[in-house]
Write a structure and sequence with these properties.
19% strand; elongated; 207 residues; 35% helix; 4-stranded parallel β-sheet; 2 domains; Rossmann fold; alpha/beta; Sufe protein. Chain: A; two-stranded antiparallel sheet
Length: 207
């Protein structure tokens, strides 16, 4: 699967590193970087975005709303699915990278990255095995399980989301006006929920 990334001032660096480290059969085909100072309003976004790109999926990490909107329109014209994290609009627009749901058009990327999923094995309330089935492209899902193996389940439920938040690269100052949560808080919550679900599934498997 060929992925094209658009970033602004290094906004996608940690995500592309995570995709390369943990992704399977996924190729970061091209990365387009815009690192110049921009006016508050960009009347001619085509001056900054090269329209001569192709791929199976576009990851939009552009911060400027005019550039982001223009890129999404381009992708729509090219019939290329686009993921724009943290901004409402057309395409796939999760609140955080670890809030992306599954969709057929997202291919291998959508199967491997987005809402986290863990698989665990427990014994006497201790986590004996844990693996990532699906995680955040920044790598926080994987980084968070380093110290969890051998830990009591209750302690792990507290420790893991804190580890995620420490390894999360989302902007903690960006709050969702509806939930009142920042992307970092959200990331901790969805990973907590993923671990809870995995522990419950492990318990059912023993019955």
């Amino acid at each position: 699967m060929k992925i094209v990334v658009f970033q602004q001032n290094g906004s996608a660096e940690k995500k592309t590193e995570g995709i390369k480290a943990y992704g399977r059969d996924i190729d970061i085909h091209e990365v387009y970087s815009i690192d110049v100072a921009l006016p508050e309003i960009v009347d001619e976004p085509e001056q900054y975005i090269n329209s001569d790109f192709s791929g199976d999926l576009v990851l939009n990490f552009l911060k400027h709303p005019d550039l982001s909107a223009y890129l999404v329109d381009l992708c729509e014209q090219k019939s290329i699915p686009v993921v724009t994290t943290g901004k409402p609009g057309k395409g796939y627009t999760p609140f955080t990278c670890c809030g992306l749901g599954k969709a057929e058009k997202l291919g291998d990327y959508g199967n491997q990255f987005g809402f986290p999923e863990y698989k665990v094995e427990t014994d006497d309330g201790i986590i004996r095995h844990i693996e990532v089935v699906r995680g955040a492209p920044c790598g926080a899902t994987w980084a968070a399980i380093v110290d969890i193996l051998g830990m009591n389940v209750d302690e792990a439920m507290v420790k893991l989301p804190l580890q995620v938040q420490q390894n999360c690269f989302a902007d903690p100052s960006s709050f969702d006006p509806i939930s009142g949560k920042s992307p970092v808080h959200y990331a901790g919550y969805v990973h907590f929920a993923a671990l809870k679900k995995a522990v419950e599934q492990a318990s059912k498997g023993k019955k």
